[in-house]
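Whiteboard transcription, Tuesday session. T.W. wrote the C-alpha cells on the left side:
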C-alpha cells in the first residue's frame, strides 16, 4: 500500500471554502444543501423505493419492472431485472416529437478545426442506418463488437447502433497497441470490429486499421467475421477481401429506420477493459438500465444540465468518461454537446479556450492532467493563456480522473471560471459507471482538491482493514456499503475475479473502490489520496504495474526480472518507473540508455505508448525479502529519490538499494 500521509497533510491545511452564489443555488435543480440532504435522507430511509422512483421517472421502459433489487446472489446484484428497455431508444427515439427532436445533438470539431453538426433526428437516422448495416453483416443481439475509433460522430453512432440492436460494445482506446487489441478481441469473443483507416491527432495521421489487421493476424481472433472501416482521411488502407468493408459501403442501401431491440434491464450494454492489480486487464461489464439511469441523472444533478447548455466533456470514448459523459449521458438528457477529435495543444495550447469561445461552451469537463499541462503552457507563453479568449459562456467546470491539487484547482477556478463558475471535482471509476462522490453546483460549498460528498443513494465510507468506520481526519480505505444501480455487474467471463477484486470477505460485503481516502474533520468532506493497490494513474490513465511488468518480462531475450512502481509527477500525476534485471550484465552509460529505449518501445508495442516507463533503472537484482517477495515500498522510495528510513531488516540484499538509486 502506498502511504497517503503527504496528501492527508494537505487536506488538513486546506481551509479555503467557496460557497455557491445565491443565484446559482436559486437556479439549480438540486437547490441548496437542504435539498441535497433531503435526497440523501430519502435514499437512506428506503433505498429501493428511492431507486425505483428515479428509474420510473428517468427511463423510458418498454416493459415496466416489478422488482427493484434482487440481492439473492450477492455480490451479483440485479436491478430492475424484469423490466425491458433499449439504451439507444432512451437516448434518441424518446426525444422525437419533443423540442429536442430538431435540437443539435453533437457539434463535432475535427482536429483541423472543421465543424459538423447533427440534430437528434439526424443522429437517430444515422444510428438506425448503421444498426441496419451491423445486422446485414451478421451482428446479432448478444454479440460483442469491438470499437476502435477516433473521436468522431461515427464513434458515437457505432456505440449507439450496437445498443440499438442489443449487441454489447467494447470500445478500445485508439492509443492501445495491436497486442492489447488482440487480447480484448479474444477475451470478449467479439464478432466484429468497427474502426477507421486513420485518426487525426495534432495534425498527424495515425493508423488504426493497420493496427486492427496486425492484432487479428496475431491469431486467436477467428471469432471476428467482419471489420467495418470509416474512411476518416483520404489515405487508402489495406482491406481484406470478404472480411473488410468500408463504413460507406456498409451503410449504402440501408434504411434509416431500425426498430430498437428491447432487452432486459440487466442486458450487458458494454464491456470496458481497465487495469487491475494483476497482469490481465479486466472487462468491466455494465448493465443497460442501471448504467443509463445514472448517466442521465448525474447529467442533471452534477452538471445541473439546462436545455440551453453547450456541454463539453473532453474525454475519449475509449475511456469510461467518454462512455457515460459523451456517448450516453448527454444524449439521454437531451443535451447539445461538443465532440472534439484533436488534442489540447494543437495547433497551440490555447485550443481548448479558443473552442470554448467559438462554441460558447457552458459546461466544461476535463482532467487535471490537461489543466496542469495548460497551466504550464500558459505560464511559458502569454499568447496561450486563457485570458486571450472570451470565456463568459462558461457557467460550470468539472474535473475527473485523478486528484486535482489545490493549486491547479485555484488556477482553473480563477483563470477559466473567473471565480464565477463552480468546479465539480467528480470522483468515480470505470466500475462505478458514473459519479459517486462530487459536489453539486447549486448546493455544496467547495473546498479546492476535495471531491466533497457522496451523491444521494451512494453509501460511501472510509473504513480500516477490518471494515470498521474510521473517524473523520483519519485516513483509510474507500468503500461503498450498499449496492447502487450503475455499479459494475461482473468481470466479463471471470465472476470469481469480480468477487475477489471488489468484495473481499474482510470488508463485510462492501464494494472496495481500491482508493485510499480521508474525510475532513470539520465537514466530513472526502479527499481521495490515491490508489491503495498496484494501479497507477498516469495522466488520468489507469495502468496496472503488473501489466507493465508482464510486458517487460515478455521480452524474454533480454529481461530476467522487472518491478514497476509509480513516482509522483507534477504534470502527469504519477510517472512509471521500472526496475529491470537483464539476462546479461548490468549496462551503464550510453548502453543503458539504448537498452532503456528499446524496452520502452517494446512496452509501447505490447500495451500502448501510454504505458511506456518514464524512467528505467537497471540492477544486478531487486530488493527482496528472504522469502523472495519484491519489496515495492522500498522501490517506491528509491524511485522518489528518498533516503531509505524504512525498516529493511527483512531485506535479503540491502546493497542493491544504493545501486538502484543511481540513475545508471
Ligand atoms: O484513483 C481514482 C482516480 O481514477 C481511478 C479510476 O480510474 P478509471 O476507472 O480509469 O476512471 C477514471 C474516470 C472516472 C479512481 O480509482 N480518480 C478518478 N476521479 C478522481 C480520481 N481521484 C481523485 N479525484 C477524482 N475526482
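and on the right, the sequence the group agreed on:
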Amino acid at each position: 500500500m502506498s502511504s497517503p500521509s503527504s496528501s492527508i497533510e494537505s487536506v488538513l491545511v486546506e481551509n479555503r471554502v467557496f460557497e455557491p452564489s445565491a443565484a446559482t443555488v436559486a437556479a439549480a435543480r438540486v437547490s441548496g444543501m437542504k435539498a441535497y440532504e433531503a435526497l440523501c435522507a430519502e435514499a437512506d430511509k428506503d433505498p429501493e423505493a428511492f431507486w425505483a422512483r428515479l428509474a420510473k421517472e428517468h427511463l423510458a421502459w418498454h416493459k415496466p419492472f416489478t422488482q427493484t433489487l434482487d440481492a439473492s446472489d450477492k455480490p451479483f446484484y440485479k436491478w430492475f431485472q424484469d423490466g425491458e428497455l433499449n439504451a439507444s431508444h432512451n437516448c434518441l427515439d424518446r426525444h422525437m416529437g419533443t423540442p429536442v427532436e430538431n435540437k443539435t445533438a453533437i457539434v463535432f470539431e475535427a482536429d483541423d478545426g472543421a465543424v459538423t453538426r447533427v440534430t437528434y433526428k439526424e443522429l437517430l437516422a444515422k444510428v438506425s442506418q448503421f444498426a441496419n448495416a451491423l445486422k446485414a453483416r451478421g451482428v446479432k443481439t448478444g454479440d460483442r463488437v469491438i470499437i476502435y475509433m477516433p473521436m468522431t460522430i461515427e464513434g458515437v453512432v457505432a456505440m449507439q447502433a450496437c445498443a440499438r440492436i442489443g449487441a454489447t460494445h467494447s470500445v478500445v482506446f485508439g492509443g492501445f497497441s495491436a497486442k492489447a487489441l488482440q487480447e480484448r478481441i479474444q477475451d470478449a469473443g467479439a464478432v466484429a470490429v468497427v474502426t477507421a483507416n486513420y485518426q487525426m491527432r495534432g495534425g498527424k495521421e495515425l493508423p488504426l486499421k493497420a493496427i486492427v489487421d496486425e492484432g487479428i493476424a496475431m491469431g486467436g481472433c477467428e471469432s471476428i467475421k467482419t471489420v467495418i472501416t470509416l474512411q476518416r482521411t483520404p489515405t487508402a488502407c489495406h482491406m481484406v477481401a470478404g472480411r473488410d468493408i468500408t463504413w460507406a459501403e456498409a451503410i449504402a442501401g440501408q434504411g434509416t429506420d431500425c426498430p430498437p431491440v428491447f432487452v432486459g434491464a440487466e442486458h450487458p450494454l458494454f464491456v470496458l477493459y481497465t487495469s487491475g492489480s494483476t497482469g490481465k486487464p479486466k472487462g468491466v461489464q455494465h448493465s443497460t438500465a442501471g448504467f443509463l439511469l445514472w448517466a442521465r441523472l448525474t447529467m442533471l444533478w452534477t452538471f445541473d444540465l439546462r436545455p440551453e447548455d453547450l456541454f463539453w466533456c473532453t474525454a475519449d470514448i475509449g475511456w469510461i468518461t467518454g462512455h457515460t459523459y459523451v456517448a450516453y449521458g448527454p444524449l439521454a438528457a437531451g443535451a447539445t454537446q461538443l465532440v472534439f477529435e484533436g488534442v489540447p495543444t494543437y495547433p497551440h495550447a490555447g485550443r481548448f479556450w479558443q473552442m470554448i469561445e467559438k462554441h460558447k461552451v457552458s459546461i466544461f469537463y476535463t482532467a487535471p492532467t490537461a489543466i496542469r499541462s495548460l497551466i504550464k503552457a500558459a505560464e511559458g507563453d502569454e499568447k496561450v493563456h486563457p485570458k486571450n479568449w472570451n470565456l463568459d459562456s462558461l457557467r460550470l467546470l468539472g474535473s475527473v480522473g485523478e486528484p486535482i491539487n489545490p493549486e491547479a484547482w485555484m488556477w482553473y477556478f480563477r483563470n477559466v471560471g473567473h471565480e464565477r463558475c463552480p468546479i465539480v471535482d467528480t470522483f468515480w471509476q470505470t466500475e462505478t459507471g458514473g459519479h459517486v462522490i462530487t459536489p453539486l453546483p447549486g448546493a455544496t460549498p467547495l473546498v479546492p482538491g476535495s471531491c466533497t460528498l457522496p451523491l444521494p443513494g451512494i453509501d460511501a465510507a472510509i473504513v480500516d482493514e477490518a471494515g470498521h468506520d474510521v473517524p473523520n481526519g483519519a485516513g483509510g480505505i474507500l468503500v461503498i456499503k450498499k449496492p447502487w444501480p450503475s455499479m459494475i455487474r461482473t468481470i466479463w467471463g471471470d465472476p470469481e475475479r469480480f468477487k475477489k477484486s471488489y468484495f473481499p470477505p474482510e470488508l463485510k460485503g462492501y464494494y472496495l473502490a481500491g482508493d485510499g481516502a480521508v474525510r475532513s474533520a470539520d465537514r466530513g468532506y472526502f479527499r481521495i489520496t490515491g490508489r491503495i493497490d498496484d494501479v497507477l494513474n498516469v495522466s488520468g490513465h489507469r495502468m496496472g504495474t503488473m501489466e507493465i511488468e508482464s510486458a517487460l518480462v515478455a521480452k524474454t531475450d533480454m529481461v530476467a526480472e522487472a518491478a514497476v512502481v509509480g513516482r509522483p509527477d507534477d504534470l502527469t500525476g504519477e510517472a512509471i518507473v521500472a526496475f529491470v534485471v537483464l539476462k546479461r550484465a548490468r549496462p551503464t552509460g550510453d548502453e543503458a540508455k539504448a537498452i532503456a529505449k528499446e524496452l520502452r518501445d517494446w512496452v509501447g508495442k505490447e500495451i500502448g505508448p501510454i504505458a511506456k516507463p518514464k524512467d528505467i533503472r537497471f540492477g544486478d537484482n531487486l530488493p527482496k525479502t528472504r522469502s523472495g517477495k519484491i519489496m515495492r515500498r522500498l522501490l517506491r522510495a528509491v524511485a522518489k529519490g528518498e533516503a531509505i528510513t524504512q525498516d529493511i531488516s527483512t531485506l535479503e540484499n540491502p546493497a542493491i538499494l544504493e545501486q538502484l538509486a543511481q540513475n545508471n
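Someone added at the bottom: Residues 25 and 442 are 4 Å apart (CA to CA).
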